[in-house]
Amino acid sequence: MSITDLPKIELHMHLEGAAPPAFIRGLAAEKKADLSGIFDERGAYKYKDFWDFLRVYEAATSVLKTPQDYYRLTRAVLEESVASNVVYTESFLAPDFCGGGDVAAWADYLAAIKQAADEMEREAGIVMRAIPTCVRHFGPDQAKKTAQCAQETVGDFVTGFGMGGDEAMGKQGDFKYAFDMAREAGLRLTTHAGEWGGPESVRDAIRDLKVERIGHGVRAIEDLGLVDELAEAGVVLEVCPGSNVALGVYAKWSDHPIAKLRERGVKVTVSTDDPPFFHSTMRSEFDNLAETFGWEEADFVALNTTALDAAFCDNATREAVA
Ligand code: ADE
Ligand code: ZN
């Protein structure tokens, strides 16, 4: 078996960010929305840098208007995951885009997403769990609304709470109230940190939001003392190397610190983030890691074990997936 055929555990993928461009173009045509400006001549998403990426992302998301649209999106995304032999996936869902933070509207969107996930589990064996996320540049008050959405729907499917968006806006600690609400509801926590912010953003996330996982976290490498603390505390990094290279956090794969972080004892896992935006899949992530760092099958099996141990699911699910 080749390395890319291995079963995979993915912990960090944004549902809207995983929308195939052709799917979004189809929805735009149905809804008579003009999205031509966000695609290049080959039909791929087009953006200049991270902040432009966020704009294009939100424009693409604007045609996802109904729970039925999200049902179709979820099926389309999970079909891509199955093609990479992903057997367990955690997907970030933004209540801000699913009803604007209104709990009743969110529950309708979530039911449609869960229906698609349940069908795909029956049809293709893939298990999905949902992590509602607030969007950092929408601010702390809106984040409280998303935490309330998460709190009201916590259960077997909704198992975590997180934050994405523009890491340059405000501080992690500004979102403490929302994260405290989520923790008290029994949700497990992760936040994007150390992608566009430096090591201090990772420190803030652990101290102020008390997260057990960090989305990206790679810029911790700029402070080796912090790297050792992460290793010691067993904080898990959801590393998305293809995303980091595509968005320019690192110029090329060989500059990426994932191997150094791992060698120094940090628990690293690998995910795609927003695969069609970065022309990536879980297969291509594995392939690039093998090629760049010489990782072999045993390394990838260990990577999957770390990811499954850190998954926001119960032990029965973990055992069923293993
Ligand atoms: N939302 C979707 N992708 C993201 C990323 N790479 N960083 C922050 N927020 C995001
Ligand atoms: Zn992300």
Automatic annotation (TrEMBL):
InterPro entries: A_deaminase_dom, Ado/ade_deaminase, Metal_Hydrolase
Keyword list, A-Z: Hydrolase, Metal-binding, Zinc
Pfam families, per database record: A_deaminase
MF terms (GO), sorted A to Z: deaminase activity; hydrolase activity, acting on carbon-nitrogen (but not peptide) bonds, in cyclic amidines; metal ion binding
Gene3D superfamilies: Metal-dependent hydrolases
Keyword Iron found: no
Source organism (scientific name): Celeribacter halophilus
Domain of life of the native organism: Bacteria
Cofactor: Zn(2+)
Keyword Plastid belongs to the record: no
Protein name: Adenosine deaminase
Residues annotated as domain Adenosine deaminase: 7-322
Organismal lineage: Bacteria, Pseudomonadati, Pseudomonadota, Alphaproteobacteria, Rhodobacterales
Family, per entry: Belongs to the metallo-dependent hydrolases superfamily. Adenosine and AMP deaminases family.
